[in-house]
């Protein structure tokens, strides 16, 4: 065992040698020594449970429990900020990132994408048969989602990018 014994750990992400863990009921933790020791890093977080965490271009995104939302840290977990900018409060269980994009999958609200490190978000649920998302992944050509009851869903990356660009111009 490499630390956090007896803790329900649900997700991991890394930035360099730092590894970050999201847990159920205990919040967020960081290790810088390969998991030998862990430190609690919940400054600014209002959630005690996290089911998803993603490192994207040096920025961390963590999906909190129902009623909270997506939190962002720009200082390797020292502080966390609850995001708005078009992404609703809720439980977030999956993230994906690629080429300047971050996608967040929610429980009951579908998929949101951001091209500005989480400052603004656009919902991209076209053709999505189940709004409960458990995981996301970008490929070279698509954004894919693992859903609760409708299998996998995919959206062409060009559609993701054009939808986001159109909605940004409308604002």
Topology:
Elements: E1 9-15, E2 18-23, E3 28-31, E4 39-40, E5 50-56, E6 59-64, E7 70-73, E8 81-82, E9 92-98, E10 101-106, E11 111-114, E12 122-123, E13 133-138, E14 142-147, E15 152-156, H1 157-170
Antiparallel strand pairs: 1-2, 2-3, 3-4, 5-6, 6-7, 7-8, 9-10, 10-11, 11-12, 13-14, 14-15
Relevant terms:
171 residues; single chain; four-stranded antiparallel β-sheet; 1 helix; 43% strand; mainly beta; 15 strands; 8% helix; globular
Explain briefly what this protein structure is.
By secondary structure, the protein is mostly beta strands. Helix content is 8%, strand content 43%.
Can you put this structure into words, describing what you see?
The structure is a single chain. 8% of the residues lie in helices and 43% in strands. The protein has one helix and 15 strands. The strands form four sheets. Strands 1-2-3-4 form a four-stranded antiparallel beta sheet, with no helix packed on it. The chain has a four-stranded antiparallel beta sheet with strand order 5-6-7-8, with no helix packed on it. A hairpin with a 2-residue loop joins strand 5 and strand 6. The longest helix has 14 residues, at 157-170. The protein starts with 8 loop residues before the first strand and ends with a helix.
| Biggest β-sheet description | 4 strands, antiparallel
Order of helices and strands, N to C? EEEEEEEEEEEEEEEH
Number of strands: 15
Task: Report how far apart the termini are.
Answer: 50 Å
Strand content: 35-45%
Task: Name the structural class.
Answer: mainly beta
- Helix share of residues? under 10%
Q: How many helix segments?
A: 1
């Amino acid at each position: 065992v490499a630390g956090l014994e007896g803790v329900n750990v649900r997700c991991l992400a890394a930035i360099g040698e730092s590894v970050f863990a999201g847990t159920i009921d205990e919040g967020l933790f960081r290790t810088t020594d390969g998991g030998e020791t862990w430190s609690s890093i919940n400054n600014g977080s209002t959630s005690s449970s996290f089911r998803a965490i993603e490192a994207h271009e040096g920025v961390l995104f963590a999906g909190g429990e129902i009623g909270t939302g997506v939190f962002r840290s720009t200082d390797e977990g020292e502080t966390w900020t609850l995001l708005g900018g078009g992404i609703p409060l809720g439980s977030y269980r999956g993230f994906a990132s690629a080429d300047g994009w971050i996608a967040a999958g929610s429980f009951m609200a579908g998929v949101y994408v951001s091209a500005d490190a989480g400052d603004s978000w656009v919902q991209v649920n076209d053709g999505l048969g189940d709004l409960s998302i458990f995981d996301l992944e970008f490929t070279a050509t698509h954004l894919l989602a693992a859903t609760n009851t409708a299998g996998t869903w995919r959206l062409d990356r060009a559609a993701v990018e054009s939808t986001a660009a159109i909605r940004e111009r409308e604002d």
